[in-house]
Amino acid sequence: MAPQTPAVVMDNGTGYTKLGFAGNDSPSFVFPTAIATKGPAAGAGGSGSGRPAVGQKPSFLTGGAGPGGHLSAKRGTEDLDFFIGDEALGAAAGPGYGLHYPIRHGQIENWDQMERFWSNSIFKYLRVEPEDHYFLLTEPPLNPPENRENTAEIMFESFNCAGLYIAVQAVLALAASWTSSKVQDRSLTGTVIDSGEGVTHVIPVAEGYVIGSSIKSIPIAGRDITYFVQSLLRDRGEPDSSLKTAERIKEEFCYVCPDIVKEFARFDREADDRFKHYEVQQPGGRSVTVDVGYERFLAPEIFFNPEIYSSDFLTPLPTIVDTVIQTSPIDVRRGLYKNIVLSGGSTLYKDFGRRLQRDIRHLVDARIKASEARAGNQAKSGGLDVQVITHRRQRHGPWFGGSLLGQTPEFRSYCHTKAEYDEIGPSIVRRFALLGGPGST
Amino acid sequence: MLLLDYGNLLIESLLKDRFAPGATPTSIDQISGEFDNTSFHISTPESKSKILISLAIKCYPELVKYGAEEVLQREYGSLIVQPESGYDFSVGVDLEQLPESEEEKTDLIRRISLMKRNALAAPFEQAFDEFASLQEQARQYTSESAPQGVREGGEVRAIHYREEEAIYIKASHDRVTVIFSTIFREETDRVYGKVFLQEFVDARKRGVQNAPQVLARDDPPLELQGIPGIKAGKGEVTYVTFVLFPRHLTPQRRAEVISHIETFRDYFHYHIKASKAYIHSRMRRRTADFLQVLRRARPEAEEKERKTASGRTFTVKG
Ligand SMILES: Nc1ncnc2c1ncn2[C@@H]1O[C@H](COP(=O)(O)OP(=O)(O)OP(=O)(O)O)[C@@H](O)[C@H]1O
Ligand SMILES: [Mg+2]
C-alpha cells in the first residue's frame, strides 16, 4: 500500500452525502443519499421498510461474462441493478425502480441499502480500491454503538478498507470552524448547531467530548422549511409549487430578518425591491414565473417562532441553545457560549447567525439581570460573552472538518486498522482516540 | 453497475460544469485518488479560466518505456504542458479557448477523463502492434521454418502497477497474452475470487464464443518463466491469463478491448466486494426471518379454565 494515498472522507447525511478526499477544501461529490432499486418504492413515510430485491444468485456468478459477454442478460444480476444519488432520482422517475432513503434522522436504517450505497460511492464515484485507503466516516450524535459496529463490519469485511475512523459530526463541525478568523484558539469546546435536511441538533462539546446528556434535537430542519415554502406557494396558487421549486426558492431567496412585523411593513414599503420572481423551466420546454414574497423571511423564521409552522413543537431555537448550555457542567458553560458554531445546509440563511446571537444574548442578559436583582444588586456580574460563529465552511462543516483532520500526519495512528479489526472484532470501534484533541496539532 | 467506467467521474463532472455555457469560472483545487496507485490533481493555479489536470501513476517510468509518451502525445497534443511538480503528466485547458461545438466539448471532456486509461494503454498498444507485425512475418513461413523470434513471439512487457501486483503482456504471431498477477488480502476473498474466476474460465463453454480464453492458476504460467521478480511454484499470488485472439485485436475493436482489460483487476475486486455485500444482505434477511420465527414461537397466553362461582366449568357449545 502506498503510504501517500489520501484518506477518503464520507459524510452521509439524511439528505445529502458528501464524498471526497482528505486535504481538499470541498467534497468531490455531493448527491442525495438515495438509492433506486428494482421494485416499488418504500411506502411513503415508512421507516426504511423497503427491502431491496435480492436475486437468487450473487452477481459474481452471473456478471462474470467478461469482455463481450451476454450472460448478464440471461442470469439475474439484480443485486447490482441499482443507482445512487442523482442517478437514483432519475431512475426512480421512470418505471421499474423504487426510491429509498437509507438514512433517517441522521441514522442508518437500512443496512442492505447503505452497503450498496457505499459500494457504489467507492467504486463508481471515488474510483478507489478501499484496501489502499483509510476512511473517515461521520456519525450523528448519540449514535447507538451497534450502528458503529455495523458500519465497521461493512467497511472492514465487505470492503477490506485499510483503516477506519468514525467521528461525531459535531466535533468535526467544530474543527471546520477553525478556518474562521473569529476563532482564535483551535479548541474543541463549543456548542454546535447542526441543521441539515432531517433534524436540527444542538450539541455541546467539551474538549472534543460530546456532552451527551445535554444534547437537544429539534424536529425542524431543511425539509420542513421546504414544505413550508411549498405550502405558501400553494396557498397563493403559484403556477409551479413542486418541492424542487420550493427548495430552490428557499435556498436562493430566504433570509432571516430581525423582526417580522417590521419586515412585513418593509415589504409593503419597498415592494419592488423585496418581492422577487423565480423562473421555472418546466418539462416540455415551457417556462413559468413564480412570485416570491413573504416566504423569503417567514420560512427561516420557523426556527425562531415555531408556532407559525408547527403546533406541537413550540420552543424557539435560541431558547433551546440556552437550555442546552445551562444543563451542561458549569465549568464549561463559558466556553460553550463563546463558541456557538453553525454547521449544515439549513444554517446558511443570511443573518441566521446574527439573529441567533442577538436572541441568545437577550436570554443570557435577562437571566443575569434577574439574578443580580435577586442578590439585591450587590454584586455585578462581568457578563457572558455570547458568540455565534458563521464561517465559510459551514455548509459542509462535518465533511470539511473531516478533511482537515484526515490530512494530518497523525490521522492514521488514530484509526483502527483492518488487522486490529480482524483480531478484536467489531467491538473495537466502540472507542476511538480523540482526533485533533489536545496534544495533536 | 456491472462494469466499471473507464473514465474518472470527478474530472468529467468538474469539466462538464465549467464547460457549460454561462458557467462562471471559479477556482478549483482538488486532489483525487484513482484505482491502482493513481492520483489526480485538478486545479486552477494561474487564473480561474485555466484548468490544470495532472496525473501521477506509480508505474509511469515503465509506461514511458512502453511508449506512453507517444500515446499521450497523440491523445492530448497541444493540451500538454510541463508536468506539475510531483506529477508525471499534465494537461491544461483554457476555458476561453474551448472548441465551438457541443460534440467537440463532450469529446474533450471524455478524453481528459480517460487520462489514466490512455497512459496505461501504451504497453497494450505496443503489444498489439507487435502482434500485427509478427503475424505479417509469420505468413511467410510454415510453422517449422519460422525463425526463433517469430515462433516464440516478443518480449514480455511487465507493468508493476500496484505494490504487489503486475500486468504482463506478451505478443505472438497468433495471439496476445495478458497476465494479471493478483493478491487477496483475505482468505474469504480468495474463495470468492476462485468461484468468480471459474466463471471466467467457463465462459467459453457456456457459449460465449467470442470471449478470450481465460486461465487462472496459483503458480506462474509458462510465459513468465525467467522473468525477474517472479517466484516459481505455488504461492500467494494468483495468475489470471487472458489470451486475446486475432479477432480481439482488429483495429476496430482494439480500443474497447484495451479499456476493458485494463479495468479487469479492479472489476474483479469490485465484484468480490459486491458479492460479499450481497451475501451480507442475505444473512441479514435470514436473521430477520429467524427472529420473526422466534417471536411467533412465543407461547400464547394459555386459556385458563373458567369456572362459575359454584365450581362448575364453562363449556363452549358449538
Ligand atoms: N443556501 C441554502 N440556504 C438554505 N438552505 C439550504 C441552502 N443550501 C442547502 N440548504 C438545505 O440544507 C439541507 C441539506 O443540508 P445538509 O447537507 O447539511 O443535510 P444532511 O447532512 O443531508 O442532513 P442531516 O445532517 O440532517 O443528516 C437541505 O434541506 C437543503 O435544502
Ligand atoms: Mg449532516
Beta-strand share of residues of chain B: 15-25%
How are the strands of the largest sheet of chain B arranged? Answer: 1-2-3-5-4
Q: Which stretches of chain B of 5+ consecutive residues score pLDDT under 50?
A: none
Name the average pLDDT of chain B: 86
Tell me the series of helices and strands of chain B, N- to C-terminal.
Answer: HEEEHHEEHHHEEEHEEHH
Largest sheet of chain A: 6 strands, mixed
SSE-based structural type of chain B: alpha+beta
Biggest sheet of chain B, in brief? 5 strands, antiparallel
Biggest interface found: A-B, 58 and 57 residues
Can you walk through the features of this model?
The complex is a heterodimer of chains A (441) and B (318). With 441 residues, chain A is an alpha+beta fold. Chain A has helices at 71-74, 86-93, 111-126, 145-158, 169-176, 222-235, 243-253, 260-269, 271-274, 295-301, 317-326, 330-338, 352-374, 397-406, 411-414, 418-424; strands at 8-12, 16-21, 29-32, 35-38, 82-84, 97-100, 103-104, 107-108, 134-139, 163-168, 190-195, 200-206, 209-210, 216-218, 276-281, 287-292, 340-343, 388-389, 416-417. In chain A, helix 5 crosses helix 14 (397-406), helix 6 (222-235) packs across helix 7 and helix 11 (317-326) crosses helix 13. The two termini of chain A are 25 Å apart. Mean pLDDT of chain A is 86; it is low at 43-75. Chain B is an alpha+beta fold. The longest helix of chain B has 33 residues, at 264-296. In chain B, 37% of the residues are buried. Chains A and B meet through helix 3 and helix 4 of A and helix 1, strand 1, helix 7, helix 8 and helix 9 of B. The complex binds adenosine-5'-triphosphate and magnesium ion (MG). Magnesium ion is lined by residues 13, 169, 196, 344, 398 of chain A. Chain A: Keywords: Actin-binding, ATP-binding, Cytoplasm, Cytoskeleton, Nucleotide-binding.
